[in-house]
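Minimal example, chain plus zinc ion.
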Amino acid sequence: MLAAILPIALLFVLGCCVGSFINVVAYRLPLVDAPTSSGGDWNLAWPPSQCPQCQTPIPPWHNIPMLSYLMLGGRSACCQQPIGRHYFVVEGLCAVMTALIGLVLMTDPWQQTQPALLLNASSLIPLIWGLALHWCLLTLAAMLLRHPQHTLVVWQCLLWLGLLSNLSGAFRALAEAVVAVALCYALGFVLAALVNRFLHKGPSDRLAFFADPLLQATAAALAWFGSAIGWLPIVYVAATLATVATKHVAPQSRAIKKSSALPLGVRRNISGVSQGIVIALLSALWWLNGEPLPLW
Ligand SMILES: [Zn+2]
């Protein structure tokens, strides 16, 4: 029994710690290279953890994932200001997700063999890819609410992880994944050229399309699951055109203000919402073991 529970418990603890790191990445990645109040630039390790309200350094015993939040009652020890609930949610979600992925792979539901509940070589490689995918997706989800334009680096990491996972054909043949990514970039280039030619006024950066998080999100998804989501580039084109269109008509157009039932944040950021859809899609496809969704 212990042999069954121990790996899951360890994965839960690992998930807590990774969730804590995800909070750091989601908070600091948009700040990297910005000057800090104490001199020097932000990076993922500098400056050490400090209270966002009063900048007091946080001691390690107040920095234990999940536990510290519960022990401190959701308030900082230094100035008694509320600590954002999302830190706790991300850590908890990461812990549960990590344990659940381990549980699912160790009981081997896709092969439909008897539950084994033991780590072995055949479940370890899929476990590593499953965790890498979901940790990246959680990082993206955590960033999306406030910094949807700063997700580029994480999507590019995810793209390479997808290609690497398919070196051994985890979900698709590598050739299929590479061709899908290349076609996606070609589509992005053509779309950017058309938008620049017919819709943009004034000078434009012709290579800016490459820094579009939604293009990178689409490419990353194709790197993992190739033709299973061959229709995804259509979503990318639609979202890009919708973003261009809203930029041109909002905020002057009264008609849009009156008729739109969508919250302002959603209307302003179609790219953010579209990235959220790609995140959900990638996770769903992993749970379906890369089988195409019944949408196509
Ligand atoms: Zn404080």
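The CA atoms of residues 36 and 42 lie 6 Å apart. Residues 51, 53-54, 56, 76, 78-79, 81 surround zinc ion (CB under 6 Å).
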